[in-house]
Amino acid sequence: MTPTLSALDLSGKRALVRVDFNVPMKDGVITDDTRMTSALPTLRAILDAGGSAVVVSHRGRPKGVVVESLRMAPIAAHLESLLGDEVAVKHVEDVAGEAAQAAAASLQPGELLVLENLRFEAGETSNDNDLSQALAKMADCFVQDAFGTCHRAHASTAGVPALMTDKAAGLLLQKEIDAFTQAFAKPQRPLIAIIGGAKVSDKIVVLENLIDKVDEILIGGGMAYTFLRAQGIGIGTSLCEEDRVDTAHAILEQCQKRDIKLHLPSDHICADRFAEDAQREVHGPMVPEGWMGLDIGPETQKRLAAVIGTAGTVVWNGPMGVFEMAPFRAGTACIASAIAESDCMSVVGGGDSIAAIKLVGAAEKVSHISTGGGAFLEMLEGKELPGIAALEL
Fold this sequence. Notes:
The chain is elongated and about 70 Å long. The chain has 15 helices and 17 strands. The longest helix is centred in the first third of the chain and has 15 residues. It is of the alpha/beta class and 393 residues long. Helix 5 packs across helix 6, helix 9 crosses helix 10 and helix 11 runs parallel beside helix 12. The strands form four sheets. A six-stranded parallel β-sheet has the order 5-6-4-1-7-8, with helices on both faces. A six-stranded parallel β-sheet has the order 11-10-9-15-16-17, with helices on both faces. Strands 13-12-14 form a three-stranded antiparallel β-sheet. The protein has two domains: 170 residues, Phosphoglycerate kinase, N-terminal domain (Rossmann fold, 3-Layer(aba) Sandwich), CATH 3.40.50.1260; 194 residues, Rossmann fold (3-Layer(aba) Sandwich).
């Protein structure tokens, strides 16, 4: 059982809070602060309870050296603007050395300190014990609120909580855990998984894990053509992992044995080349020679939307087509709209899936949008995440 934030006595205590403030920036300006605003409820809860917060995050991949463009100073300044004048936000250009230790020790209840980029220290990604101990010394308790890094056994995700007795999931992480529990441990049936993306190899473990849990699987994106090839259906020049055709065939057989309905595209928006301005035609169920399928066709869109309309629970990861190209975005947008219009409990993760939900203005209609890419995928694979396992008492 993962301890919750409410279980901690925070009054007069310093909490080391692992957040994910790895936000995109352009010309020194934050272009999307969603990850920061998502962490505000946890930070405010700690401060409102009479505690102070030592906030730690990484930015980019500096690989153990200081990269000026990846410093945390602009993050600290933006965080201060988000929290308002009533919260003092301090920043120190040190991760866990003397300057950081002194700044943490001087924190008063209601104050917040942002440490320097964790990955300026090589020991962060190698889960170095000395770095873990130095970080742990700065606080009385540990709060994990960076789901997007929980699949990494780093110093700030696994090393620090292993050294601390008082630890808990932050409010954002708790939402992620609760959503997965609701979707898979006690779902409303039927439970439907929608899996897309380019490659079967990226999703093999996901599919094998889901077969034992779901009632139906909808497959789209480039990976669908490997499954169609396994069924003997012509796919033209569409993306196909020839070395995964047998794997796809085995998954199809497993679904049939377990009476799991597996839905594949029956028509396709095809292109004569992989380009946004390519000539386009709708074909199905076969893709003609010289053509490649780059999105699910209108018949498939209608059919899959109807299936989603019957769902009690939907879990979605991966686009239905080449979402980054506008002419091949309709299938993914259709799935997003169908989920939004459904009364089901819905969990959505993955960059393109989330972008599609936002594109159709449906973010408020989805039960849960996951904040973690790789972590979300590993949860779908049924793996134990080091950052969550380290919180267990």
